[in-house]
Design goal:
The protein is an alpha/beta fold and 707 residues long. A hairpin with a 2-residue loop joins β19 and β20 (605-610). It is globular and about 75 Å long.
Length: 707
Amino acid sequence: MRRTVRLGAAYYNEYLPDPSRLQLDLMLMKHAGITCIRVGESVWSTWEPRDGQFDLDWLEPILDGAAEHGIEVLLGTPTYAIPPWLQAKHPELAIERVDGNTAQWGARQEVDFSSLTFRRYAERVIRAVLTRYAGHRAVIGVQLDNEPGLHLIANREVVARFHKGLQQQYGTVDALNDAWGLAYWSHRISSWNELWHPRGNTTPAYDLAWRRFQADLTVEFIGWQATIAREILPADRFLTTCIAYNRAAVDDVALGEVLDIVSGNTYLEAQDALAADSAGEHGPDFWYSTSPSGLFAQADRMRSSRESRFLVTETGATSIAGSNLNFPPYDGQLGQIAWSLIARGAELVSYWHWHTLHHGAEQAWGGILGHDLEPGRVYTEISALGAAIAAAGETIEGLTPQEDIGLLFSRESRWAMQFHPPLSVGQGRQPDHWSYDRITARFAEAAFDAKLQLGFIAVEQLRSAEELLARFPVLVVAGACVLPDSAAELLCRYAELGGRLVLGIRSGAGDEIGRARATALPGPFREVAGVRIGESSNLRGAQPLRAVDSAGAVSGTAPIAVGDGAVAEAWADAIELEGAVPLLGYEHPHFARWAAAAENRVGDGTVLTIGTLPDRATLAQLLERAAGGSQQRRSAQLAPSISSHISVHGAVNSAGETVWFLHNWSAASAVVELGMPVADALAPAHRRVGSSVEIEPWGVRVLLHVP
């Protein structure tokens, strides 16, 4: 596919009260600069209203009309929402959840997609739709299914297959007994048929294997669809699937390997949640972001799935979900969101959806047009965005984002912490099953505050220490409680070669199957970190932190200048020094004997161990220190000094030019002094700007470096 940036929308003409307004909709889209629509993925019962009886003609005028208006189409396979006749004919296809309850019909994704019975019906409709339309001149690609991996499927045949896979993996029951430590609570098995159902499991290694298996099922299903589609698609069409990154059974890296390009959802609460100091919230209800740092992190996760550019197949235009999340963006915020995604590598920013629905579970989910189907404020803003993208043209093609600091993402650690959370909710005693998200998000927030451009890399994408160092001068490894020895060895080598490794809490605690290592924390990092953590404590409330005077001994920089609000939250490691120099200590009668953060020189690099969740300001200082000071961040080239509510992100386009994106995450206008000559990438003829630029409230400036 070409490297241009597209603006798009999901378009469901079949949902409209008056489908005859097709030409009006397409004209409005073209006027708004919408160049791509997504169609067809949600309506199997429209494609096949009765078993084996297909109605394929209804989409043709939509595709023909799109082509006539110069609008490209992403065509979806409709397998995630099955028709009632299939539910009635095969009730055994309903998902049995781990708790023994059956997923009731009436929503979507209630079906066991691993079932061969289901696959026969799914293949039939996939082939019918793609054979008819995949070669249409408007179609540029196919989305396989939609948001796969919602459920952990515990149907009898699936559990049996899981157990068989364990038998193939471990070979003998004794090998499994030893690996999983099944002497505990008398769980040793003498034959494979003694393995228990996931419903009653309490063994961490079992749960981690179960989660991996579920993610593999999702990859298998999408890969199966991809094989069918590639038989039919012309060679110049691409395959993708819309990934919801919070799904229980998703391995986005493995999914990326069976696709041509990754796509996904980026939802967020707008209005004041987009203020620079807004904190991310986590939990089962938070499938959306509540902060600017969370928005960038969503984009960087998508980019990391294939370590390349990506599509945003869904983002919000007004409200999201139900009426309780009705926070239409302030003036300017739609542009902020879109340019954030483009800055981090998006080739498509597509709204869900074109018109607000009049029926169904999501009729309160706001589209570009409201229920009255009349263009309004949101349409006007998106039209301005479309014009700006068109004005930028080749300047924003093929963008490769710059990165000051990396964050290692461990999917298995996230699963392990959902099973055995290390943190509590608030100051209470209830386990926080979103501990991993909370830990990593704090580092993402601190990187945002320190004006450091963040990039994600998954554990399975670690290839060599040299390659890692060439990409990331600083790497955060936080919450990585499931980590293969080989990965830990590579990370240690990275530090020795000159990398600046930042270790957060629980990193190195467990091996590749989640088994606790028989060594003090930070486990395999103990020698390079120069510390030993003999014990740890949860914190019921925030505990003050203090600077330690000897902090400059390793890096030659000044001690951390903590403010009055510097605190340790949620967790406290008792860091004992084995060569490292303390940076921070606890201001507490018991914990004061230990360091809260320490730094160690190893080879040509350093290891910074942070034994708590510091407040954002203190953690930002620590990350800035690891990065070598504020002048080492890439954004300092453009803007040596910027206020806290301004962010700067740089990217290199296909022509090798540096493009800068300046965001004002506040309701007050701002002036930014510039340190290099630039042009306004959105102005006619890329007009040069002076020594400073003004950014409107909730505004964005896109600048091109000119030598």
